[in-house]
Each structure stands twice: as C-alpha cells, then as structure tokens.
Amino acid sequence: MLDQIAQGVDLRLREVAVGRRRQHHRPDQAILQRRHAHSLRIASPCTCARRGRAGQASSTTRRLAARPLMCPRRISGFPARRGSGPFVQVLLTVAFPIFALIGTGWVAGRLRLLGEHGTTALNAFVGWFALPAMLFAALAKVSIADVLNGPFVVVFGGSMLLTYVAGMVAARVVARARLAHMSLFGLSASFGNVGYMGIPLCVTAFGSEGALPGTLATILGAAGILTFGLILVEIDIQGGRGTPAVRGRVMKAVVRSPIVQAVTLGVLVSALRIAVPEPVLRFLELLGSAAAPCALFAIGLFLSDKGLGTSRLEVALASVGKVLLQPLIAVALLPWFLDLDTMWGKAAVLCAALPTAANAFVIAKEYETFVEGASGTILVSTVTSVATVSALLVLLRVG
To answer: What's the domain count of the chain?
Structure first.
C-alpha cells in the first residue's frame, strides 16, 4: 500500500514537472518532426526503443508528436527519491539522550555526589516502583486484540527467543556460567529498547499506523522474554529444579516480583478491556516516566566505579547478538510468515535491530548477576545501533 501511494505521488510530480517545462519550452512543429525522425535512428534510454518490432515506430512517433522529446528523469526540477535522512535524525534524537544520561551518571559517580550506595538506591526505586508502573500503564492503555498480528508475533517473537537461546549458549561456552548468568546474558542480547526508540522510529517511518507494531513488540518483550528470563533466574537462585519444594519457591518468588505482577495485571486489564480511571493512569504514567532516565543514570554511576571489568568479551558477544544476529534471524523468518515490503515486515526487522533496553541492567543489578555485562551491552549496543539501524533503514528502503 505504501509503495503504491509513493508511486502515485512520484507519477504526479513527474506530470507537474513536465507541465512546467512545457510552459517554458514550446518548440514548433518542424522542430518536433526533426526530433521524432532523429529518435527513430538513435535509441534513448527513456523512449523505450524497440526498433526491431513492426508497428512500434509509428506508435512511438504518434506519442512523441504530442509532447516534446525529453526524459522526465532528466528534468532539472524533478525531485529525487527520499533517503533515510529524516529517520537517521530521529534515531540520533532518541539515542543522544541515552548517551547523555549515562554520561551524566558517570560524571556524578566520578564526583562522588550520590555516595557509594547511589546505584543500589536508584535501581531499587526503578525496579520496585517506576518500571512496574511504566509496564502496567503501557499495557493497560492498549487493547491487545486491536494490535495483535500473528505473523508479526512469530517473526519478531521468534527472533527474540532464538537470540535469547543463542545468548545463553554463548554465556555457557565462554564463561562457563550458571543458569542465572546465562539467562541475564540472553536477556541483554535479545531484549530491545522498543518502547523508547522503536515506537518513535516506526511512527516516523510508517506514519501513525507504525505505532501498532511498536506497541505489539513492547508487549511481547515485557510479557514474554522478560518474564521467562526472570523465571530462569529464580530457578537458579532457589537451588535448582525438579522437587516440588523448589518449584514452589520459584513460583512464589516469581509471583512476588513487582515486574511480573505489573505485566500480568496489565495484560489482564488490556485483554478484558477494563478502563483504568484517568487520575490513576496519569499517576502511573508520571511515575513510570522516571524509569528510563533513572535506570540510565544508574548505569553511568555503575560504570564510573566498575567499568566493564572482565566482561568485555561477553559485552561484545551480547552486543553483536542484539544489533546483528536478531535482525538477521527476523529476516530469515520473514519469507514464511510476512512480506518484507509490508509495514509489518519492515517493522519486525527494524524492532529486532534496536539496542538493549535499560531494563536488562535493572534486573541484573537486582540479582547482582551479570551487572557489568548488562551495563556494557546497553552502552555498546546503543552506540553501534546508530550505524546499524541507519544502514537497515537504507536497505529496507524506508521512506
């Protein structure tokens, strides 16, 4: 649909450009006849030369007799096809505050302004209050039935799940990690920053309808991979799996998690179409708006003291998994479920290529596992995504 609209607009612009040219250049009939005779001898790239077929010369002559012989592509005022400039600008607009917040936290940490427990306090606020409020408000405001798209769920959700599994395997091979470490590594390699970066990019690329795939991707990340990752972490922390007592402790810990509670309630409210009172929703949105800046500031605080430590290889692998492997998996799944030329197909690949969300650090810090790796992956994947997502916008011919 978008391609048809774009072709129609291009055709109209060509007609306008040719019409303006005619107003300034009206050659007489004798000049036209000489041009037509010359066109039959010399094939032009723009005149569809097919001299070997009978009858084509006369029809071509009749068409050319009605207008000056010139190629619309060579008219000086003809507009060039739009590039990815506007989308790169949007990408930089949403990426720069991420760098700035992490950098501000780093400066505050180096100046010792918040003390040695600043990171822990900020992370506790985000994990127990701001992030659950943000997730619930985001889920409660939309109807899952209105945004649900089965093929998109398979492509984007499948790319996220497969990248998560690949991250777990990489953590096991490289670091001989336990299940909690493996789960948080996989989360850092697969849980993208769709809510903050993906939705603005999709809306800019596809118009207001672009919010639909961005919203659905946010739901899949929060209700799917985030909850699944927390369950695996709790399984490891509670001492393994298999006995009824261990399973009971795991389920109790998962149910008590404010993030899981917020996601579960949000999905129920959305599915049952329960209207949240406006004052309550505004309160949750105001509280939730602090989640991203506080989490990013806390990352800067943490990096100012710890740095990447011994997690450089893991950070590199997780970042490659997030900005390269996941979109490649999405592209590989597309032929079976979605058309790449549609909005949903392009959005699936675009959302898969986004950098790691700050939520990965919040959870890692809460469990004090893979904290250096999660913070480093967020920083590195965000920096590299400026180049990779820009290249992807060009390859997808968005805009």
So the answer is: 2
